[in-house]
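ENTRY TYPE: protein
WANTED: fold as C-alpha cells:
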Amino acid sequence: MTGETKRRGVDRRQFIATGAAALGLGITGFPAVLRAEATPVKIGLIHPVSGFIAFSGTQCREGAQMAIADINAAGGIKSLGGAKLEAVLGDSQGKPEIGAAEVTKMVEGGIHGIVAGYASSISLATSQEAAKSNTPHVVDVGVSDQIVSRGLANTFRFSPGYGKIAQFAVDNLDKINQSAGSPAKTAMIIHEESLFGTGTAKLLSEKLPEKGIEVIEVIKHANPTRDFTNIVLQIKAKKPDLIIPANYYNEYVLLARTMRQQKVEAKGIYSVLGGAASSYKFVKEFPEAAEQIMDCNHWFDPTSDVALARKKAAEDKGLFYTYEVFLAYNAVAFLADAIERAGSTEKDAIIAAMAASTWDGHGMPYGPTKMVDGQNEGAQPVNTQVLNGDIEVIYPEEFASAKPVFPMTM
C-alpha cells in the first residue's frame, strides 16, 4: 500500500512539473499560440448558387472568394492588425425574398459587410434589408438603377447601371451602323421577364428610335424557358435587321443556338447585357452560334496587367473568366479597401470610406472612381464581339483589340 501511495505521489508531482514545463514552453517557445489574433472581418456573400441562374451565381461566389483569398494572403486588413476576411456564404436560390432572409440571418450573426446578389431583383431586396441595420452593402452585378436611386446610404455599386449601359450601347450601335452605311433600320428585342430584362427592353425601346432604328417587336419570355422555337419563328417572319437579346446565360445560349439551327438571317445580333454573349464558356462550347455576336456589357481592361493576372488565376482554377467573376472580385476588394482606410469595422466608418473612395485597383476600363449616391460615376461598359473564336473589345477605341465586323458575314 505504501509503495502504491508513493508511486501515485510521484506521478502527481511529475505531472505538475511536466505541465509547468509545457506551459513554460508555450510562453517562451511558441508565443504566437497564446498571442491574441485580430478579430476576423466577416463578409457576407449572397448569390444564387442553386436555381435557374446557379451558374452565374456560382461564378460570382468564386470571384468573391478569390478576392478574399488574395487579400488575406497579402496580410489581411493591416489597419486592423492584419485581420483576415472571413466569408459567410448565403444562397438566395434566385429569389429576392430568400436573399433578404439571408441578410437577416447574417446581420444576427455579426456580419460587417455584404456583397450581393447577381440579379437586380435580388440586389434590391438584399440592400433594402441590409439598410434596416445600416449594414454596408456592395452590389456586384445588379444593374437596375433603382438600386442606387432609393437614397440608401449603406448601398454601393462599383460597376455601371442600366441607364449608362443602355445609352452607351445605343450610341455605339449608331456608330457601328453609320460606319457601315446605316444598313440596320429595324430591330426586335427578346428579353427575359425579370427586372433586368424588362428594364433593358424599356430603355432600348425608347432610345433606338432616336437613332433611326424602329423597334418592330418586343418579346418577353419566362425564366426558365426550354424551347425558343416559336420565338425564333416569329423572328424569321418579321425579318428584323437587328436581333437584340437581353436574358440570362442558359436562355441566351438556347436562343442563339436555335437561331443558328433555324438559319435566321440578320445584319447583326447585338446584345445589351447579354447573359452569354461576353462569355468564354459560350464561345468555347458553341463557337458557331457565338461567332460575330456583338455585346455591350461589363468587361475587363484587356490592356491591364492586373486584369490579365486575375484572368490567369481564375483560369488556373478551372474557371471561365466571366463578368460575374471579376465584378464580384472587385466588389469585395472595394469593400475591403474601405475597411482598410476606415481602420474600423464600425458600420458608419465603412460607409463613409466607401462614399469617399478613389480605389483604382480594379483592372477595369473605367475612369477615376467617384461615388455619387452610391454609384461609381467612373464606371462604364464596353462593346465586345466574338471574332474567330475569341472575345474582342471593339469600343471604346482606347481599349479596343479589334475592329467590328458589321453587317454579319455568317
User: Anything to note?
Assistant: The two ends are 100 Å apart (CA to CA).
